[in-house]
Amino acid sequence: MSESVVAAEHDYIGLSEFPTMETTTTTMSDKTKTRDNNNDGLNFRATELRLGLPGSESPERVDTRFLSLNKTSCPVSGAKRVFSDAINESNKWVFSPGSTTATGDAGSGSGPGSSVVKDGKSTTFSKPAVPVKEKKSSATAPASKAQVVGWPPIRSFRKNSMASSQSQKPGNNSETEDAEAKSGPEQQPCLYVKVSMEGAPYLRKIDLKTYKSYLELSSALEKMFSCFTIGQFGSHGGCGRDGLNESRLTDLLRCSEYVVTYEDEDSDWMLVGDVPWEMFICSCKKLKIMKSSEAIGLAPRVMEKCRSRN
Amino acid sequence: MALRLPSKVLKHILSFIDSNEDRNSVSLVCKSWFETERKTRKRVFVGNCYAVTPAAVARRFPEMRSLTLKGKPHFADYNLVPDGWGGYACPWIEAMAAKSPSLEEIRLKRMVVTDECLERIAASFKDFKVLVLTSCEGFSTDGIAAIASTCRNLRVLELRECIVEDLGGDWLSYFPETSTSLVSLDFSCLDSEVKISDLERLVSRSPNLKSLKLNPAVTLDGLVSILRRAPQLTELGTGSFAAELKPEAFTKLSKAFSNCKQLQSLSGLWDVLPEYLPALYSVCPGLTSLNLSYATVRMPDLVELLRRCSKLQKLWVMDLIEDKGLEAVASYCKELRELRVFPSEPDLDATNIPVTEQGLVYVSKGCRKLESVLYFCVQFTNAALITIARKRPNLKCFRLCVIEPFAPDYKTNEPLDKGFKAIAEGCKDLRRLSVSGLLSDKAFKYIGKHAKKVRMLSIAFAGDSDLMLHHLLSGCQSLKKLEIRDCPFGDTALLENAAKLETMRSLWMSSCFVSFGACKLLSQKMPRLNVEVIDEHPPKTRPESSPVERIYIYRTVAGPRMDTPEFVWTLHKNPEIGVSKLAIK
Fold first, then answer.
1. Which of A207, A65, A189 is nearest to B345 (CA)?
2. Which ranges of the sequence are coiled-coil (chain B) (predicted)?
């Protein structure tokens, strides 16, 4: 690190040390992202920001932590979202489970050699030199602004309370969030629902607006709750392998003991996945991950699927 | 021997000593004093639930009546600690149920509490009186119902900012049908509706009720009806104020408040419409504490309210108050001791935060008793900090959050070193300090040297090098908790000052440059520290030089943790390989 502390070094508009990041930041008018880049550039001059999966050879530090750009202010651990970001943002990213962590493995539930693919394309994930920001700018706009995890330091409780009160006053402070490219109800800036899981000691809250499809939702849920399902996914080693054209959600249903259900406006518990996504996020009030055996009454189709595949 | 104080006399003397710090000192004098002290201590405080085993605590303090425990590190509040890290209350409850059945009070902060846990509390402690859960999670309203129904002498039930699985409002009906001994009830963090009739009946049969904090689901009508039945309240957390503005609703509300002649503390006020604020005017002159931090009300309305609060000591407000509003506070609220200004838009895109450093300067100048500050704003200046330090040398807690990381003094473009130097030097009683903005190692040299009484220090996006950490760890005589995120340093300072870590409760470092090798070395050399490497995405192999995501170090006499999740590495678990096992295998 440079010894001298001169303001001139801290150039907020562009970072001379990092041409790659500079080009991306100048394409973005969003000051937030500029600031994020500043953090990276100033703090980690020796480290280029990369979406490097752990295990990818990098002589320098893999700056995965700064990839923990939490997209929303919902209380999801930012670091966990790195890989869901990877899936969400770009259709080209693929997990090769050999080099992923638990969260990645949970998603694919597979051994080495297979990959979870989107859009039928299979692109092996090699050492990328693409900064996260660039990825974000080229993909569809994220549900809300990129943020650094836990900054500014405001308790989740407060963030959630403010988010829900903001949603009741559409004209008040929420224009920026409404501007996101998202299908579904535009009035509410965030759509927090609680997610509980049977047997889990605590529940989570997620912002449904940050997901664009069931696929994204399911992978996020998997990651969130994977620590409670040790053995569930792994033991069904054969599953997910031929999930090329099927939603991950189906894999989840097929291969594990758990199904994802939701409570709709009429307070009925329904199986997630039956209605179009837009309808779903409009009517979903709560999510619950329950054991398939308990969901029998809800979702006869689940059982049918299981039977037909096995 | 002739000079020995008879233990009866010592016991009597100790009965006047409440402070645990003093009692800790007493217990170090000699063995007999240790024995007498431990047998008379009633209120036990454990700042880190992993620093000592529950059994050891129960054994040492047989007369324990009140237990306070803290679990997760502070940065868990900001989602920096992954879920599942730990902080489980159950082992403590189990141990206390077995060894200290006379326990009456339990206060938990940042811990994982389950319904089973709550049921155990209800079943095990016959004279249970006080349950306060702050920032806890893992339980549902069923657990609350168990407490309500079984603890017949319950006086205090407070759920402060907990994440609760809300299964409905039925829990409220579980309180005993006969009169209750409730003094304080706080369910402000629950979501679902409670039946107003249940609440009304509860309040009517709780003659000792002094503090009541409702959840946002309680409507204005509900509030009015509650206030009518509990005019003796000294602390009130309202429900939601969002309701159609009808003249008779306003009159009813006004009247209800004016009957609450003992009200000193007011909070809640979710969605409060400015038109309803005048209903509060009657209680303003008596208020000592006002939490408007969820009230999205603009400055003029806020000022109208605040200028009536001449006795106010504690004010929590959103930045919608603007500098001008803070200027008004400075002139009307002369008794102010604590100010917290929260951002109305919790985003990094903080361009439109309406308070600047000037607001805080006004308050520092006008409020002589100001000693605790939490202030969010976009940018700051050294000059402002120097003024604040000069005007308010009596500050005890100064937490400044300049939202834009690395923001320099926007007038001079210099780092905020001089400003924080002034704070550290000038505020000699400072116990808690959070710094932000652009800071170089120099700032930390000053802090290390001058902040002699600072016990808790929080740092983010700061410093130039390892030197910063070295300054802090080799200085800051009273440092007990140090939490650092996103700062560019690592091994050297940490290893050089390893001994310091045993004098502190804990050290948290995330997104810094601490290498895995250093963590291992520290673990090996310092057996009385638990060194936890918390990596959600650990690499497959861990070379010694690879940096870790987070490190949490704390002193302990309890030995290594047995309940670490897969993503936490400790020397005990993986002495050689040092690779966190993956959660799913």
1. A189
2. none
Provide the mean pLDDT of chain B. Answer: 92
Q: Which two tokens stand for residue A219?
A: 């992978």
**Contact residues for B476 (Cβ-Cβ < 8 A; gap 6+):** B447, B448, B451, B452, B454, B457
**DSSP helix/strand/coil, B531:** strand
Q: How buried is residue A16: exposed, middle or buried, by Cβ count under 10 Å (0-12/13-18/19+)?
A: exposed
Q: B340 is written with which tokens?
A: 């917290």
The answer to whether A143 and A71 are in contact (CB under 8 A) is yes
For residue B98, give the 3-state DSSP assignment: helix
Q: Which of B538, B547, B584 lies closest to A233 in CB terms?
A: B584
Per-residue confidence (pLDDT) for residue A210, from 0 to 100: 79
Distance from CA of B351 to the nearest CA of A (A): 9
E strands along chain A, which residues?
Answer: 69-70, 147-148, 192-197, 204-207, 258-263, 269-271, 286-291
A137 vs A11, A33, A89, A142, B7, CA distance in Å? 21, 10, 9, 9, 73
User: How far apart (Å, rounded) are the C-alpha atoms in residues B115 and B445?
Assistant: 48
- For chain B, say whether A285 makes contact (Cβ under 8 Å): no
Question: Per the CB < 8 Å rule, is A102 touching B582?
Answer: yes
A112 touches chain B (CB under 8 A): no
Q: What are phi and psi of B515, to 5 degrees?
A: -90, 160
The pTM for the full model equals 0.71
Complex prediction ipTM: 0.86
Please list, residue by residue across A39-75, b when 16 or more beta carbons sit within 10 angstroms of its beta carbon and e when fewer do.
bbbbbbeebbbbbbbbbbebeebbbbbbbbbbbbbbb
- Rounded to the nearest 10 degrees, the angle between the axes of helix A31-43 and helix A19-27 is 170
Contact B482, B500 (CB under 8 A): no
Instruction: Indicate left, alpha or beta for A309 from its phi (over 0: left) and psi (-120 to 50: alpha).
Output: alpha
On the 0-12 / 13-18 / 19+ scale of CB atoms within 10 A, A4 is exposed
Distance between CA atoms of B379 and A117, rounded to whole angstroms? Answer: 45
3-state secondary structure B35-46: HHHHHHCCEEEE
Residue of B nearest to A44 (CA): B488
Residue closest to A67 by CA, chosen among A50, A42, A48, A87: A50
Contact B63, B40 (CB under 8 A): yes
| Half-sphere CA count of B281, side-chain side, radius 13 A | 13
Q: A50 pLDDT exceeds 90?
A: no
Q: What are phi and psi of B535, to 5 degrees?
A: -125, 115
DSSP state letter for B541: S
Omega prior to A152 cis, within 30 of 0: yes
pLDDT of residue A29: 38
| Contact flag A150-B78 (C-beta cutoff 8 Å) | yes
The rounded distance, in Å, linking the Cα atoms of A189 and A151 is: 19
Per-residue confidence band for B17, with pLDDT thresholds at 50, 70 and 90: very high
Q: Concatenated DSSP letters for B331-369?
A: HH-TT--EEEEE-SS-SS--TT----HHHHHHHHHH-TT
Q: Cα–Cα distance between B39 and B58 in angstroms, integer?
A: 11
Measured CA to CA, the distance from residue A270 to residue B558 in angstroms comes to: 47
Cα–Cα distance, B310 to B331 (Å, whole number): 9
State whether A54 and B438 contact (CB < 8 Å). Answer: no
Q: In this predicted structure, which of A234-238, A298-302, B157-161, B385-389 has the lowest mean pLDDT?
A: A234-238
CB-CB neighbors (< 8 A) of A49 in chain B:
none
What are the beta bridge partners of residue B555?
A: B529
CB count within 10 Å of CB B251 equals 11
